[in-house]
Design a protein that fits this description.
three-stranded antiparallel sheet, 3 helices, 22% helix, globular
Length: 189
């Protein structure tokens, strides 16, 4: 496990047709920003699951192509040159809505530890593909380990957050016993 991600790192999740490009400042306390390239048919990875960020807003800035962002069940297509922001606590997901590749920048405010959160999934998809389903969904024990390590970053919509915290807190030690490990260390709590 390393203690961070290097500026300029490029991590590709071949399961989902998603590439993370960490070319923005990595230690900004106010905003975590990175570029994403969604290949044709790219699902947005785990982002295609309906989820919430309890304390951060997420902004999508589309540079080329288009994405579909669904918030509270309402679809919005965001074209090149446009952006949209999802407020904290709002259930949402996004997918590529373009017949080709889509390039976008994703920003989180406040920054929390989003850079290392996404770097973990990117590196694990490359180095530990056996920890993902054939469709690219992380196994439950991997989800538990990451979500417990990065508390208050992301939760699945529809399940009470307190229940997810409890479940992931109980399953994270089981994940470690089964050999699951993070690639990027979160900052101490």
């Amino acid at each position: 496990m390393t203690n961070g991600i290097e500026k300029g790192a490029v991590l590709r999740n071949g399961f989902n047709g998603e590439t993370f490009i960490f070319s923005k400042p990595l230690n900004d306390a106010q905003v975590a920003a990175f570029d994403v390239l969604l290949e044709e048919g790219g699902s947005g990875g785990g982002n295609a699951l309906i989820h919430v960020h309890p304390t951060t807003e997420e902004t999508f800035v589309v540079r080329s192509g288009r994405i579909k962002v669904v918030t509270n069940g309402k679809e919005q297509v965001v074209e090149a040159g446009q952006s949209t922001t999802v407020p904290p606590g709002v259930p949402h997901f996004f997918v590529n809505a373009h017949p080709g590749a889509t390039a976008l920048t994703i920003e989180f405010r406040p920054a929390q530890q989003w850079i290392s959160f996404f770097a973990n999934f990117g590196r694990l998809a490359e180095r530990r593909p056996q920890w993902f389903s054939a469709k690219g969904d992380p196994h439950l024990l991997l989800i538990a380990l990451v979500f417990d390590s990065y508390r208050n970053h992301l939760y699945l919509a529809g399940l009470p957050i307190f229940l997810q915290k409890l479940l992931f807190g109980l399953l994270a030690p089981v994940a470690r016993l089964r050999g699951y490990r993070l690639e990027v260390a979160p900052r101490p709590k």
